[in-house]
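[recover] target loaded
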């Protein structure tokens, strides 16, 4: 029943307004700020039981990538999960590539190439304390974390993060070898081991957050396909895998994306067959481990999911990295837009909205057919990029970590059905207006419209 309820999100009752919030990357404060900016929930700063949805004709879409690069991954996951739980018909939270990597990490051994072990771009070490029992670490943990950050600063200055240095407690590529003084290294190694274990326990398949983080891959609202990364056209010719009870269906067929959502959301348990089948008397920990391995072993589903959260071929800057029938004899911008047009034609929607590919602002491309929504909403990511910085590192010279701006920056979008007296001429004739919404409130402009830029789609 859980899988069916999520799959039903793929096509919902006709909304009048659809808001979309891009990648939040471990910034709980700005996650709350942007939800407040929509005005969709009253009392959003109060406890969740006091939240009230204010606009029955509106939907809210989160584009994925709630974790990593920032220090508040757990708080962001908890906040967005609470929104989807309290307003399940109105709030849609999609899977991002960082969540997908976390799902696969649950089945990987320590030191076995886990994504969270990257020394940049993945799990920020300042987030780990929130996953410990009671949210408290051992005495002296602040000193240990400071020593780890100092080691990371050295790694970044020398460019060693690009040469395979890892956030592992031991091994020839461990960041621990850069900890000074050397006497601190055992404490740092023990902390990394303890922190990463607590993180993975906190997102186990049967924990509230671990069960929730396996999100839908797409949703269609406002004649718009929302997906974290994108979809290469050739992916539509692949099949959503069959189950014991239902046949395979081509992804590009009618209902294919919704079916993929359903089978993806049920993959952890549906794949428990053969050696991974539930055993009498198995413990909760054994069940979680088997479910994690089952998902990681679902090769066909993982391929489809990975393409949809990782693909960047719809963007001009990345167009040349992919080879397909649109690749030859055109500019990168034309190649990207040809891909967008071909994809939309086959899926019978008017536009696609994606996250995953960050710039400082929302981009509207291909005559409004592509909405690139990732505008670097996380303050840590905006200031520090892929580095794991803290306040001390921001003051160190030569400067590797610029000071973080405490104000939320970036943009989100709102699609709004056009009034009947507005003539909108676009492919497919979808009568929608696009509003690009800035971070700062402007009381004069907010009377009647809360955007700095508006265009017809």
């Amino acid at each position: 029943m859980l899988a069916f309820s999520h799959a039903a999100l793929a096509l919902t009752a006709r909304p009048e307004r659809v808001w979309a919030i891009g990648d939040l990357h471990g910034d709980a404060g700005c996650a709350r700020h942007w939800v407040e900016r929509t005005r969709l929930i009253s009392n959003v700063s109060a406890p969740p039981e006091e939240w009230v949805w204010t606009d029955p004709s509106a939907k809210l879409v989160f584009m994925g990538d709630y974790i990593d690069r920032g220090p508040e991954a757990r708080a962001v996951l908890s906040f967005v999960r609470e929104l989807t739980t309290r307003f399940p018909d109105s709030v849609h939270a999609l899977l991002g590539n960082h969540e997908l990597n976390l799902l696969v990490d649950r089945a990987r051994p320590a030191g076995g190439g886990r994504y969270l072990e990257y020394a940049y771009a993945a799990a920020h070490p300042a987030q780990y304390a929130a996953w410990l029992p009671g949210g408290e670490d051992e005495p002296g943990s602040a000193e240990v974390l400071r020593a780890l950050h100092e080691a990371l600063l050295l790694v970044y200055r020398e460019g060693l993060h690009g040469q395979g240095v890892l956030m592992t407690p031991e091994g020839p590529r461990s960041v621990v070898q850069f900890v000074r003084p050397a006497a601190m290294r055992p404490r740092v190694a023990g902390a990394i081991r303890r922190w990463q274990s607590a993180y993975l326990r906190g997102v186990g398949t049967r924990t509230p957050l671990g069960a929730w983080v396996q999100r839908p891959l797409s949703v269609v609202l406002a004649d718009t396909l929302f997906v974290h990364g994108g979809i290469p056209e050739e992916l539509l010719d692949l099949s959503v895998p069959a189950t014991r009870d239902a046949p395979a269906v081509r992804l590009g067929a009618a209902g294919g994306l919704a079916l993929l959502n359903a089978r993806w959301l049920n993959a952890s348990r549906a794949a428990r067959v053969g050696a991974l089948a539930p055993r009498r008397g198995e413990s909760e920990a054994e069940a979680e481990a088997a479910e994690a391995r089952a998902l990681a072993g679902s090769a066909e589903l993982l391929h489809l999911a990975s393409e949809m959260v990782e693909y960047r071929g719809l963007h001009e800057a990345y167009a040349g990295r992919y080879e397909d029938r649109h690749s030859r004899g055109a500019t990168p911008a034309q190649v990207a837009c040809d891909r967008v047009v071909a994809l939309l034609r086959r899926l019978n929607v008017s536009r696609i909205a994606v996250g995953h590919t960050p710039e400082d602002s929302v981009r509207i491309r291909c005559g409004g057919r592509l909405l690139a929504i990732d505008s670097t909403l996380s303050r840590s990511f905006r200031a520090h990029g892929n580095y794991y910085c803290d306040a001390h590192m921001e003051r160190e010279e030569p400067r590797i970590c610029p000071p973080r701006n405490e104000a939320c920056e970036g943009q989100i979008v709102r699609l709004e059905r056009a009034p009947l007296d507005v003539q909108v001429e676009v492919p497919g004739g979808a009568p929608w207006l696009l509003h690009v919404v800035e971070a700062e409130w402007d009381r004069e402009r907010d009377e009647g419209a809360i955007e700095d830029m508006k265009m017809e789609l």
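[recover] notes: Residues 1-12, 424-429, 443-452 have pLDDT under 50 and may be disordered.
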